[in-house]
Amino acid sequence: MSEWGPIPPEHPRYRSLLVREKLIHHVGSGVVALAGLVAQGRGEAFDYLLGEETPDFAHDSIRAAAASLLLARHPVISVNGNVAALCPKELVDLAAAGGAVLEVNLFYRSPGREESIARILRDHGATRVLGVGEEASATIPELLSERRRVSPEGIFKADWVFVPLEDGDRTEALVRMGKTVVTVDLNPLSRTARRATITIVDNVIRALPLLIQVVEELCNRTTEALQALVKEYNNARHLARSLRYIQERLDRKAAQFEEGQLD
Ligand code: PTJ
After folding, report:
1. What is the DSSP letter of 75?
2. Is the pLDDT of residue 33 over 80?
3. What is Dmax (Cα atoms) for the chain?
4. Which residue, 9, 21, 141, 214, shows the most beta carbons closer than 10 Å to its own?
5. 222 CA distance to ligand 1 centroid (A)?
6. Quick one: which H or E segment has residue 104?
7. Cα separation, 199 vs 159, whole angstroms
């Protein structure tokens, strides 16, 4: 139900509108920051350019991300307001499949938000959620935003951190600390996309179920096989591929439009 009444299922952008409504609802519940709506709008614009489906090249980054998770000794999934609202169950399932710890980490930290996000994760089956209140007592060096406050048992000592929809400063800081940083970002030009070790250019809603599936598929592979998957991945080349994908898709669209085909 939107503010204006129910969204008709036959609306051409029904699914997209439902996602928006979910985020708007969670601004009200205190889970999503107001700026989370701006972030979603930016994501939607890039999703249009990708054709609103997981591009073929994204599967390679998902495979490398899954392999790197299975190789990690202390993997942590960093949860912000947007991802908690959009895919809470998938975050919990990914943590279970990959033996990772969940930690709430917010850019816009305000009283009650961390607790609301931890509650959503627990409602979806999480038994341990770090990063809430005083537990986030360690500091990421050289970082000024509230994201610098992390759990000493979680992000601080992690060797692998998953940071879907992240800001560039923290990605850079985590990489500088020697951690493997995996992100999901629809914008291949963002600083996070460029600085992360592995960037999945896709909508987090589509990417997370695929990532869980691949983690489950790869979990019995040998260390050498997993290392080979990570080694053959190159993030810069991957981002170049994503830009070419968008460029070629737009060229095809432009040619269609020139012929008067607007569908
Ligand atoms: O909950 P908080 O306080 O930690 O704040 C979370 C937000 C997302 C508001 C904060 O991290 C932020 O301001 O992020 P940015 O700098 O706007 O970056 C968000 C990035 O995520 C942008 O590059 C968007 O294109 C991208 N994005 C937005 N929605 C999605 C997405 N990528 C994948 N899937 C999405 N659904």
Report:
1. E
2. yes
3. 61
4. 214
5. 34
6. strand 101-104
7. 17
pLDDT tens profile 103-150: 999 998 887 999 999 999 999 999 999 999 999 999 998 788 878 999
Q: Residue 70 and residue 65: Cα distance in Å, rounded? A: 9
| Paired sense of beta strands 160-162 and 75-79, if any | parallel
Tens-digit pLDDT profile for residues 38-79: 999 999 999 999 999 999 999 999 999 999 999 999 999 999
Give which of 72, 119, 116 is closest to 94, Cα–Cα.
72
Looking at the predicted structure, is the pLDDT value of residue 4 above 60? no
Average pLDDT in the chain: 94
Within 8 A by CB and 6+ apart from 228, the residues are none
Q: What is the position in ligand 1's atom list of the atom closest to the CA of 35? A: 9
The residue to mutate among 19, 47, 82, having the most atoms of ligand 1 within 8 angstroms of its beta carbon, is 82
Residues in contact with 251: Cβ distance below 8 Å, sequence separation at least 6, in sequence order: none
56-243 has CATH 3.10.310.30 classification = no
**Which ligand 1 atom minimizes the distance to the CA of 184?**
33
Measured distance CA(110)–CA(116) in Å, rounded: 11
